[in-house]
Specification:
six-stranded mixed sheet; five-stranded mixed sheet; 351 residues; alpha/beta
Length: 351
């Protein structure tokens, strides 16, 4: 039995900060894990703007940003290691997504793994999505194999991050896909009136549902598509934002309507499937009002886990994906992404 001590790094579309999870993984008859230390490093306004506008930059500027963000990640790893007096034998970094258009064969996550490895003197796995896209897949979601192997006691794993996504077993295969934009939209509406985000859904709770807006959101073509399917920031720019801008209603009403929309889309998915328990993670799991709205639309058991699992599940699973890559084992499921085959995604670099 071999134990792997891994640092998992996750930077999500909601851009609230860098999540770091230090975990130990062991395999006997099945995989077991322990979360030892966690931390979220908030992004400065400079980094937020830089990451937010990365898609507008030239090829050369993106290359420079890839290197500078890699240095930032390396510095944060060193700080975390020294502060907690730990000795990871592997780093697994998701990086930060700049482009994700798998239908055009494009996906890009910045944050050079080579630089992280060189700075920390630790083997590093990065660029987890590219191989799957080359194999004709969506390159997302990647978390489902972790859901299956680490959180298999739950029938559904629902993540409420920048986008809501879900994974579950169906007909002997893991199925997973993005459901709808989530915090990426809710945060933007909140920020339009000076709040960073809608804490506990308090703003939305004060609003009213606009039926016309709700209907238009629910009629977006994406919701009729069958999986495999995934969403990127491009979807919100092209579809969600233009719809929201058309309605001259208060931010509270937009939030309340969007909560209703998201809860409808999520309940549409889980209510059609067998199984009872739904593990909820991601920042949206802290939004007590949204959880109330979701519970009102399903008889499934909505399970809110520990703080560590809510906030760091993706960082934990990317650490695990790094272990699978290190072992040259499958960490990306074709049943989820639509690729021509399963693969062991990621690039492993050594110092």
């Amino acid at each position: 039995m071999e134990a792997y001590n891994v640092l998992g790094l996750m930077s999500g579309t909601s851009m609230d900060g860098l999540d770091i999870a230090y975990c130990t993984f062991e395999f006997t008859e099945k995989w077991a894990f322990e979360v030892k230390k966690t931390s979220t490093v908030p992004y400065s306004q400079t980094w937020q703007l830089s990451l937010q506008n990365a898609f507008l930059k030239s090829e050369e500027e993106i290359k420079q940003l890839d290197e500078s963000f890699g240095i930032f990640l390396g510095v944060q790893c060193i700080h975390f290691i020294n502060k907690n007096k730990i000795t990871p034998n592997l780093i697994a970094s998701h990086g930060h997504t700049v482009f994700h258009q798998p239908d055009k064969g494009i996906t890009l996550q910045i944050g050079s793994g080579k630089i992280i490895s060189k700075m920390t003197n630790i083997p590093t796995v990065y660029d987890f999505r590219s191989m799957d896209v080359k194999l004709g897949g969506q390159g997302a979601p990647l978390v489902p194999i972790g859901d299956k192997l680490l959180f298999g006691e739950y029938d559904f794993c629902l993540n409420l991050g920048g986008f809501s996504n879900i994974s579950f077993e169906k007909d002997g295969k893991r199925v997973a896909f993005d459901i709808c934009p989530q915090n990426i939209i809710l945060n933007e509406i909140s920020q339009s009136i000076g709040d960073t985000y809608d804490k506990n859904g308090e703003l939305g709770r004060q609003g009213n549902i606009n039926q016309e807006l709700l209907t238009e959101l629910n009629e977006l073509d994406y919701y009729q598509k069958l999986p495999p399917k995934s969403l990127g920031k491009e979807f919100t720019t092209e579809f969600t934002h233009p719809i929201l801008r058309k309605y001259l209603i208060s931010a509270n009403d937009k939030l309340r309507t969007y909560y209703e929309h998201s809860a409808i889309q999520i309940s549409n998915v889980i209510n059609q499937q067998k199984g009872k328990s739904v593990l909820v993670s991601g920042g949206g799991a802290h939004n007590s009002f949204f959880i109330e709205v979701l519970k009102s639309k399903t008889t499934k058991e909505i399970v809110i886990p520990s703080y560590e699992i809510i906030d760091f599940k993706e960082a934990i699973i990317f650490a695990f994906l790094g272990v699978l890559k290190h072992r040259n084992e499958i960490n990306c499921l074709a049943s989820v992404t639509g690729a021509s085959r399963n693969s062991s995604g990621g690039v492993l670099v050594t110092p």
